[in-house]
From TrEMBL:
Its EC number is 4.6.1.17. The gene is moaC. Homohexamer; trimer of dimers. Belongs to the MoaC family. This is Cyclic pyranopterin monophosphate synthase. Catalyzes the conversion of (8S)-3',8-cyclo-7,8-dihydroguanosine 5'-triphosphate to cyclic pyranopterin monophosphate (cPMP). The lineage of its organism: Bacteria, Pseudomonadati, Ignavibacteriota, Ignavibacteria, Ignavibacteriales. It comes from Melioribacter roseus (strain DSM 23840 / JCM 17771 / VKM B-2668 / P3M-2). One of its GO terms (biological process) is Mo-molybdopterin cofactor biosynthetic process. Substrate binds at L76, C77, H78, M114, E115. It catalyses: (8S)-3',8-cyclo-7,8-dihydroguanosine 5'-triphosphate = cyclic pyranopterin phosphate + diphosphate.
């Protein structure tokens, strides 16, 4: 059986889903992004020697700020109250990556996955922007939803 798309009207045109009939409940989402950097960028970030400033702190706040603006960035995305958003950046020397994780929580009628994904995406772009003067070959890698809870579709946990 084909799953009906909720963002398409009877004429096949995109429209915003009416969530007014949905139950309000606690919903959470976790997302991940990875930024692959050169040895030079890795060391500059680790030693806080990037000319634009503290990359990890600024990217963290960029991610938080972006999550709060998700409905302005993603067409048809509802503006929901975010009760918690956290972004964590961690250096992985072995992989030469900056790993970014976000956690978002709301008590709303619709999910918060887009906010979690926006947070890691913008944090990753901020890392790139702050480090591009050192090395433009930095690659923003995998961006993915790790988990979600709440709502009609229930729990999702990404497999390994």
């Amino acid at each position: 059986m084909k799953k009906k798309l909720s963002h398409v009207d009877g004429n096949g045109k995109a429209n915003m889903v009416d969530v007014s009939g949905k139950e309000i409940n606690i919903r959470t989402a976790e997302a991940y992004a990875e930024v692959n950097v050169s040895e030079e960028v890795f060391d500059a970030v680790k030693n806080n020697e990037v000319s634009k400033g503290d990359v990890l702190s600024i990217a963290k706040f960029a991610g938080i700020q972006a999550a709060k603006k998700t409905s302005e960035l993603i067409p048809l995305c509802h503006n929901i109250f975010i009760s918690k958003i956290d972004v964590e950046l961690k250096l992985n020397r072995k992989k030469k990556t900056i790993e970014i994780k976000s956690f978002a929580k709301t008590n709303a009628q619709t999910g918060i996955e887009m906010e979690a994904l926006t947070a890691v995406s913008i944090a990753a772009l901020t890392v790139y922007d702050m480090c591009k003067a050192i090395d433009k070959s930095t690659v923003i890698g995998e961006i993915k939803l790790l988990s979600k809870t709440g709502g009609k579709s229930g729990k999702f946990i990404r497999g390994k």
